[in-house]
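Let us begin with a simple case.
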Amino acid sequence: MARRPRDSVAFTVVVTVLVALCAVPLALVVALSGAPGTVLLATVLAALPVGPVVACFVWLDRYEPEPRRLLAAGLVWGGVVATAFALVLGGIGGLLVPVTEAASLAVVAPVTEELTKGLFLLLLLWWRRHELDGVLDGIVYAGMVGVGFAFVENVLYLAAAYDGTDGVGPGGVEAVTGTFLVRCLFSPFAHPLFTAFTGIGVGIAVGARSGLVRVTAPLTGYALAVTAHALWNGSTLFGFGGFLGTYLLLMVPAFFFVAGLSVWARRAEGRVLRIALEDAAARGLLPAVDVPWLVDLQARRASRRHARAVGGPAMLAAVRDYQQAAVELGFLHHRYLRGTPPPDFAERGQHFVARIHAVRPHVALPGQVVPAR
């Protein structure tokens, strides 16, 4: 195993400490938002859209699946750290510069919430840059942070709607149903969508050759995230007509833009991976005949089914390890070919090649001879 970079340790420590510090006050905020039964009902309702939205991002993240612990860290960051920081910053801002409720909703909330959500992406860019290979990775991590943030925020909104403390109506089932329909059914993608603009900027910065682009791309993405968020929040100030108009004219087109960009980036990853692995094979880093079985997603699944059938769990584990190491090498090699390799390119490349050479004798892809045990 390659030694663990200090940057990875620093990232883990910072995220863990911030989660621990923010968990207690946030838990108090949730607990005080209503009676235990109300909070339980709000939590169940808020959790309903989480699975389907997360599944969409996991589906996008299939060519080079990101570490599950980092995806989970993004969810926790959004639900705990970003939410707590947004509440604190919003409260401090209101004390220092008194603003109206409308200004807080349309200006303060978008600025602080997108800042605290986007901070996770900046930490990745700073300390775990090797986990980011482009725009799609930025969108996936941003989506996870947005899902976590939306979940906790929805718990608070649903509880307030049921208790009648949201200032809109008397509360009860009718109020919580309306809030559920708007926040959980019609716009479960809202927060992931806003933060995706920051993720796109971070993804562009990772592969940029220009220092100016590496700085301005995340800032531009953040500005777009704040703008979209502000327009969405501001639409609620103009009644149902303003909300519906913004939903149809802004949210739906923005959703299809980001979704289309994500699908395009996912397909582009397949082409990039094929070119990089073919070049790596030409350099003798792995067998050229294996490349088709590593690039195509259906071929990968077929390889795993074949491994389980002919070699049992041991060969299945070997094939999984081989695929992961080869794909990681492919995307790393792509950055080398682009002229934007990470600082630890040589060390990481040697580690992946060593893993490939160690496990390849124990792998039989479809149509190949099963290795003797």
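The second case is a distinct protein. As before, the sequence precedes its structure tokens.
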Amino acid sequence: MSSPTPRMIAVKDGSIGWMIFNNPERLNAVSLDMWEAVPKIIAEFESDPEIRVIVLKGAGDRAFVAGADISQFEAQRNNPESVATYEDATTLAFETIARAERPTIAMIDGYCIGGGLGIALSCDIRFAAEGSTFGIPAAKLGLAYAASGTRRLVDVVGPAFAKEIFFTARRFTCDEALSMGLINRVFTRETLEAQTRDTCSIIAENAPLTVMTAKKIVDETRKASDNFDADYCDQLIERCFSSEDYAEGRKAFMEKRKPVFRGR
């Protein structure tokens, strides 16, 4: 599959779309062209009905993503206009991942820092290898973390842990991240990819409309009560019950066989 920059790799592997941050010499720190490539890659994955899950990972064996590429800040974030352009690109990247219809998994091996943690928080599920480290060093750089990213962190770990992460700006271990709920599961480095693929296979065998509906409704429940769209949720639920996949699921159950879902 195509990518607008060699520092981002897009690979279709059966039912999995792999989006790989490919800047290993800088621990996969994200440059502007990489931020701008994220929405384009997600859109290409989402246009392919065979892709059921999107997995994000970092190239090499040292980092998932070690934040934004700070070496570019002097040239690309040195005045209000360039800051706005850069922030728009990062916000769009985060939002595109978070709003993807396909389930998204961050497969974390190594450093997951700053914007890298923001990318992981934009995913639905986070798996990590033993020895990975997590943190948001904004307080050490004098910059402010975006409100949308702060909200995602609070949604995942709660306000008390979010404040600890921001206030201390320190690195957290895998065990600490797991205890906070920052990540879903920890695996050995040798089994991380296999475990991720196994989860993708399980998801891919399930009814896509049901999975997508669950994702959208869970996200809807995170909104303030006065913004919760019950009608929208009801429409999603009705779409499942009127789908061919629901008919196939009932038929397969009666015939005692594995259903073949097609996402319609």
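The first strand starts at residue 8 and ends at 13. The two ends are 24 Å apart (CA to CA).
Keep these points in mind for the review questions at the end of the chapter.
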